[in-house]
Write a structure and sequence with these properties.
Blueprint lengths: L21 E11 L3 E14 L2 E4 L2 E12 L2 E11 L7 E16 L2 E3 L2 E10 L8 E6 L2 E3 L15
Length: about 160
């Protein structure tokens, strides 16, 4: 949490302080079963912007993966994001991802997947919702410890 500790300056209104406070709440929960892993992450933030209206972005993500065979797994993810929950006219974003993880050789993964991105309009935006679907493919190599040598955060 960030709090405005600046001196209070009188303005031409009755208020003696300009509030630029922010509050962030984030939670994560995950559980691993024998062959299935599940997870949930949620975030909300309150942004006081002085005399401007308070903003409240929020979102959540739900994801899962499952090992089907020693060389084949499946994964799925759903994200929901609202840039300002308090706004009457806003565009909410959702993202669906699903795919398979095939491991033809040790430490080599081929992961084709589909993404769908429907857009939800709230208020009087004047446009109809649309959905974008695209296919994606990725590959990954890891060392024997499960780290990807191409990623920067594994080089420390």
């Amino acid at each position: 949490m960030r709090v405005n500790l600046q001196p209070k300056v009188p303005t031409n209104t009755d208020s003696l302080a300009v509030s630029n406070d922010q509050l962030l709440w984030k939670v994560f929960a995950g559980y691993g079963f024998r062959r299935v892993n599940l997870g949930l992450e949620a975030v909300t933030q309150v942004r006081h912007k002085g005399p401007a209206p308070t903003q409240e972005p929020r979102g959540y993500s739900i994801f899962a993966n499952s090992t089907l065979t020693p060389t084949l797994a499946a994964f799925a993810r759903f994200d929901h994001w609202e840039p300002d929950h308090r706004a009457d006219n806003r565009v909410d974003n959702e993202l669906y991802i699903a795919g398979v993880d095939w491991q033809p050789f040790r430490d080599v993964h081929v992961m084709p997947n589909l993404e769908a991105e429907p857009v939800s309009l709230t208020g009087n935006r004047g446009r109809s919702p649309r959905t974008t679907i695209c296919k994606r493919g990725s590959r990954s190599t890891t060392d024997s410890a499960g780290r990807n040598p191409d990623r920067e955060d594994n080089l420390r």
